[in-house]
Amino acid sequence: MLDVPAATKIRKLIKMIDENPDDAEAHYWYLNTMGKDTTAVEMQYVSWMKIFPKTAMVSFQLGHYYMQLDVAKARQYLGQAIKTNPQLIKGWQDLYLLSYFEGDRDATSILKNALAANPGNAKLAFRYAYTFKLTDPEQYQQSLKKIASKKNTDKYNVKAASLLADISNSYPDKKKLYEEIKESYLSIDPAEIREIWII
User: Which superfamily does 1-119 belong to?
Assistant: First the structure.
């Protein structure tokens, strides 16, 4: 049973989401306050999904909530989220994580489908490329080259160039890549490069 202050907080958060179902912060605090009361949480989110059928954030938040509680339901609601909005990168990422940590052989195909739905996304391209590091080194290198060749200031393009420089056996190639990286660093906070999550 929720205590009075928590119940009041819940009502306020529900009102906030009712008014703006894309409010990620309100979803976070609602789920954080509800804890593991999955029955009440799911009832509320199913209601929201009926009211906001075109808002992928709602099903995504429920799927994300279930990731450590019920894998089957997490897959269900995350799948619903990316079906509603294929450009929802966070939804694809969570689906990939579920499959990866479950040892699912189709995990890489999730990233492939995510990239097909978001062809210009350097983050997805980078993570998809990284899946080939141990299984197909040639594909891994070619994928990194494709990402690095974009030569924009996205931190993932810079990271791809950095990895290419690390694995290159050619000094001229290393020097060229590191020069390009140095130029890119002028407009990117180095801390952002260090924060890139890699599997």
Answer: Tetratricopeptide repeat domain (1.25.40.10)
